[in-house]
Amino acid sequence: MPGSLFALLRSRIPSQGKTLIETLEGSRITYGDMLARTGRLANALVGLGVKPGDRVAVQVEKSPENLMLFLAVMRAGAVYLPLNTAYTTHEVEYFVNDAEPRLLVCDPAKRDGLEPIADLRGAALHTLDADSRGSLADLAAAAPEAFEDVGRAGHDLACILYTSGTTGRSKGAMLTNANLGSNADTLVGYWRFSEAAVLLHALPIYHTHGLFTAAMTVMLSGGSMLWLQKFDADQVIAALPRVTTLMGVPTHYVRLVQHPGLTREATAHMRLFTSGSAPLLAETHETFKAKTGHAILERYGMTETGMNTSNPYDGERIAGTVGFPLPDIEVRVATPGTGEVLPAGEVGVLEVKGPNVFAGYWRMPEKTREEFRPDGFFITGDVGMIDARGYVHIVGRAKDLIISGGFNVYPKEVESEIDLLPGVVESAVIGCPHPDFGEGVTAVVVKAPGAALSERDVITALEGRLAKFKLPKRVLFVDELPRNTMGKLQKNVLRDQNKALYG
Ligand code: AMP
User: Fold this and answer.
1) pTM value?
2) What InterPro entries has UniProt attached to this entry (predicted)?
3) Residue 135: CB within 6 Å of ligand 1?
4) HSE on the CB side for 29, CA within 13 Å?
5) Closest ligand 1 atom to the C-alpha of 304?
6) I need a labelling partner for 386 at 20 to 30 A (CA). Which of 58, 327, 431, 450 fits?
7) Which domains are assigned to the chain?
């Protein structure tokens, strides 16, 4: 495999005229256009003083040109650092101070706020908007197309992706050319991507899911993408006839199953639907299957590792599991502290090892050491279990584990019981500070419209099904659970809102 990610991609280009991206508005970028546009952008980057290994921080709206910028950074041998568009100026300041980029690219609307921050750190600042306008686009337009790609070794850094960091400081996961290339290439094979693939791309590209799992996999297969600015159920349903695959987060599938346009006929030609970034409810999986005949393929990954496991392409895709370890990737379950490896069926922390696993956290050697075992396994922080057939199940995050009166309570176990009750749409179980128990098990429940369900009803229904120490001390009802753009449930928000619940 070539050392640099771009060299790998270049080796897979099917033909210059093949479509790489089409937008709903009708614009089209071929693989040949991609080479021309990324060549101009790479020349512009070098002109701005970007050298191999320099960081290029990017906070812009999703657009094809944003993807071109990522590829241009790869061609220049620099390190791409995408930032969530929702981050405030204050938040971006932290990343700029931490990563010390040579160049910061932002939306023109954010220029004034970010200029002093870039100045202070000696970073150049340029702009790019969703319509490919801005000072960086101007520089690129004036630059030549021809660019000699900077060679990089597999172990050289390609990207820094900051973890969403719901507790403590956000950490920069350092991903190498080999991490990204090997993982996307594995997915091409495992999920049978080819030049015939047309992926409906409706994910943000500042996150590993949209940038690597989706876009990189398509590009390494020589396939095409139909590009949506963001997920919109009407647009997705209308676009289905033009595509063959869709990658989504669970909330996307929840919206699709509620859409009258989701039918067997509308999806008959589709080859694959995948879901990840958060747990897909078994109920969503089943409803989707009943309406379309397609079993959504659920997989599991994270910023630090890319994809680790996947339900099989041909075999049985089991709802509520994330499938088997991908080729070349080892997954095991261990006790949280001592790291003793546990047998099938036992719950512990998931640990992974393979060419996909990142090189460590940017400028955090201590933190990096803490998260790796001496034999090279990365401690994911996800709690899970591998069943007798080898399917991996995720039970939750280690930090969401509740310790009440000295007993461990896995929120997922309690949530699963609550979700079975008539009139419950979904639930989240959290630990809130409790004067007697340390943490009090607390259930936050979304009721079905019109359901007459009280706090007492829920607790009574769970008695006899769960040990007493697992029973919620309080049940709170809400209209919806807080989720971020990747569909991840934000338990930290619920914990914050209820920190004084027990006085
Ligand atoms: P991120 O680094 O933002 O991609 O988040 C990674 C985390 O998302 C993982 O550590 C898991 O906790 C969670 N996650 C990803 N995929 C799944 C899945 N299929 N089921 C449950 N949790 C998932």
Assistant:
1) 0.92
2) AMP-bd_C (IPR025110), AMP-bd_C_sf (IPR045851), AMP-binding_CS (IPR020845), AMP-dep_synth/lig_dom (IPR000873), ANL_N_sf (IPR042099)
3) no
4) 22
5) 2
6) 431
7) 5-190 (3.40.50.12780), 231-397 (3.40.50.12780), 401-498 (3.30.300.30)
